[in-house]
Description:
Layout: E1 9-11, H1 15-26, H2 38-48, E2 51-57, E3 61-70, E4 73-77, E5 86-89, H3 95-103, E6 117-119, E7 134-145, H4 149-152, H5 158-167, E8 171-175, H6 180-193, H7 202-213, E9 218-225, E10 231-239, E11 243-251, H8 256-270, E12 275-277, H9 286-291, E13 296-305, H10 308-323
Parallel strand pairs: 11-12
Antiparallel strand pairs: 1-2, 2-3, 3-4, 3-5, 6-13, 7-12, 7-13, 8-9, 9-10, 10-11
Amino acid sequence: MIPTSNIRPTVVRDLDVARERWNNLNAVNIASSPFTEFTFAERLAEIFGWTLVPVFWGDVLGVCFVVRSRAWTKDAVVPPFAPFSCIALSESVPILDRVPLLHRLFEDIPSIPFSRVYSFDPRLCITGISPTGYQLAEKQTYVVQTAPLNQAMTSFSEGTKRHFNRSKDDYSFQIDRLPLSTLCELVSDGYRHHNQSAPLQTTQLENLATEMGELPFARKMGLFSAETVELHAGMVLLCSQEKAWYWLVGSKRGPAMTVLLANAIHYLHEQNIPSFDLMGANTDGITEFKRRFGGDLVSYSHWIRTDGSNRLLSKMGLLIRSLRRF
């Protein structure tokens, strides 16, 4: 048994020391993914101008907090472009000890803001967690099993099959050819289409896409007009041996993303990557589009601090944002 109550959290401010320690823990992490790579968390924090604060409970549990500063307030957040918190739980922890150990994440931790949000990778969504002062907001995502194109299409909706068959010859699908500046313009256009502001300006987004696209777990692919050679849809996928994540994607309106996704499912199968996480099923319209590819709906836990101090911080944040308008 792991004596979870005796393990004290250690904040490691020296990022070089933290990186080595984190990499050792992440190598045996039951929920390892590109989003638990130290480099990914570090770069994402940097591009938003926030602070990465690694915390360890012995050599069995760690979390890389991303701390956001707004005027005189600070909070630990799940940053944009990361579906889950950066958490590592060692496979050496017996199953019966995992729930009490994960509970330690919700305790007050020296140097970590009181206001915190966590999103748990589905592999960490273990029943029995009920932290005081936090509210559970269950979220969902679609996970598609990769397969040869003809086989994969048997799971598509009839409308998706029609869109693909009618339009597939209008495009050229290419691996590792992706003009990132054009992709990032399409990403920003997608946010505007849904009446949202992109989390980063297009130039910042391009810097992020360039850095992440060079990492060994990234795959880039584009769909180009067969007639004009113009990019109509593109994506940067982040991959492990078991799964790919639909990370940074953008397209022109029309059938291009349908054709690109169908080709991506086939490509990932050829790369022996068995599943494809479409990263989210929580926005109307987008959710319906993803549903039509026949994936499984998978839930994951999103925990938000809800006690009095957090409500005060939220009100202060709203006040700050309102004052910035003047």
